[in-house]
Design a protein that fits this description.
Blueprint lengths: L1 H4 L3 H16 L1 H26 L3 H25 L3 E3 L6 H34 L6 H10 L13 H8 L6 H13 L2 H13 L4 H4 L9 E3 L3 H11 L8 H16 L2 H6 L5 H27 L8 H12 L4 H15 L9 H10 L1 H13 L9 H12 L7 H25 L2
Antiparallel strand pairs: 1-2
Helix pairs in contact: 2-3, 2-14, 3-14, 4-5, 4-11, 4-12, 4-14, 5-6, 5-9, 5-19, 6-9, 7-16, 11-12, 14-19, 15-16, 15-18, 16-18, 17-18
Length: 421
């Protein structure tokens, strides 16, 4: 049991590198993160391909990574062709309303789609008084928690839909929890009001200040719809990814250079995400395999434990396979079979033990906001902000200054109200 767990060390090393090295030696990390990520990836490839003679795990994870990067990358390119021009004089009330609307849109465009389309306007709306918490709360609300109501919102919920969870089941059963969680906007409003008082006098005196929105690159909404629609295509294989790549190529070729320049568009952020996440996807294989094999022995048997368990792992592992592993553990707990039992096992859980699926759904989606690597859009938003010369919190700064004092108490409240029993 513990010998197998040792092969989770490459994941821990990568996680530690992402957290510590940019602080210890930022210049070295920027030059060498490619070698760190790919080196640990090749270590896992050697383990599974040559020592265990198990190429199946590698192929399956490789296909998941390919789908992931096609979705993230195509949305990044298409959103880079949509320019929303604003004055940069948003008040705390306007900002809070924007975040609420964006949270709803995350369920229609997905957290990745909403994040990529809206992060640049969000930065420009607050350009005269932009602070690190603006980026952090955007990640909290738009890139994660906002997408917790529909299978389109976040990949774990879509996997649940494919396993037999009805499309509107999540909305019907999770909306009270979602409403409780979006009190984050109230916390943001308090912080933003304090920040607004420090803004230049000419900004603060405009009590009726409003943003004048100007849209460029309208045609890219067609490509955005192509990408979102392709998510539901599973056969034939690679058609979905082909549509995503086609949409990205057409968007890039048909968008005027002036729009890309207005967005300060370049491929550096997506390159960083692609390299780091290939390491994350590879090194998490042993960790997830260990969890699936020994979950029953860990004594996880209540909805509250499933909430905290799936949430904790989703904050540092990819939340989609974490969702599936805990769904498999729930089936095993009640004799409903594993994932291979398909929709029948899920139907039994929905009928008799629905709180377990609700706990897994909420934990997998919400806790993705706890760290930068908890969900794909998080790191991409951070990279875009840094490209715009915005100071963002470090890995530990993000967790200890924002996640720990703000998110964890809200998650504790969610547990106490909905999953304690």
């Amino acid at each position: 049991m513990f010998r197998e767990l040792l092969w989770s060390l490459p994941f821990l090393i990568l996680l530690g590198s992402i957290a510590i090295l940019p602080l210890a030696n930022k210049r070295w990390w920027e030059k060498n993160f490619v070698f760190v990520s790919l080196g640990l990836t090749f270590l896992i490839i050697f383990r599974y391909a040559f020592q265990l003679n198990d190429a199946g795990h590698l192929v399956y994870t490789g296909l998941e990574y390919f789908s992931f990067i096609c979705l993230i990358g195509s949305l990044f390119v298409v959103s880079g062709g949509i320019h929303i021009n604003v004055k940069g004089e948003a008040t705390p009330a306007i900002n809070s309303i924007f975040l609420l609307i964006a949270a709803v849109l995350s369920n229609l465009l997905g957290t990745t789609g909403a994040s990529m389309v809206l992060v640049r306007p969000w930065i420009r709306m607050n350009k005269y008084r932009l602070s690190a918490y603006h980026i952090v709360f955007f990640i909290f609300i738009v890139s994660n928690i906002g997408g917790g109501l529909t299978p389109i919102g976040d990949p774990p919920l879509f996997l649940g839909y494919l396993q037999g969870v009805p499309f509107f089941w999540v909305f019907r059963n999770v909306w009270p929890i979602w409403l409780l969680a979006v009190i984050l906007t109230g916390i943001f409003f308090i912080l933003d009001t304090q920040n607004f008082k420090k803004a230049p006098l000419e900004i603060r005196q405009k009590e009726t200040s409003h943003e004048e929105w100007k849209f460029l690159g309208y045609h890219n909404t067609i490509f955005l719809i192509m990408i979102i629609g392709s998510v539901f295509i599973y056969h034939p294989r690679f058609l979905r990814e082909g549509i995503m790549l086609l949409a990205a190529a057409l968007s890039y070729l048909t968008t005027s250079k002036s729009v890309h320049e207005s967005n300060d568009f370049n491929f550096v952020p997506i390159r960083e995400v692609a390299v780091l996440f290939i390491g994350i996807f590879a090194t998490m294989i042993p960790a997830l395999e260990w969890l699936e094999k020994y979950a029953a022995q860990l004594g996880i048997n209540s909805p509250g434990q499933f909430f905290w368990g799936s949430g904790t792992l989703s904050s540092v592992l990819d939340n989609a396979p974490t969702y599936l592993n805990f769904l498999s553990a729930a089936k095993g707990l009640f004799g409903a079979g594993n994932l291979s039992s398909g929709n029948s096992g899920v139907a039994m859980l929905l009928t008799n033990h629905s709180d377990y699926i609700r706990a897994i759904s909420v934990g997998s989606v919400f806790f993705g906001a706890v760290t930068y690597i908890g969900n794909g859009p998080n790191f991409l938003v951070k990279s875009i902000a840094e490209q715009a010369k915005i100071e963002t919190p470090s890995f530990f700064g993000y967790f200890f200054k924002y996640s720990l004092p703000i998110l964890i108490p809200i998650f504790f409240l969610v547990w106490y109200v909905f999953f304690r029993a």
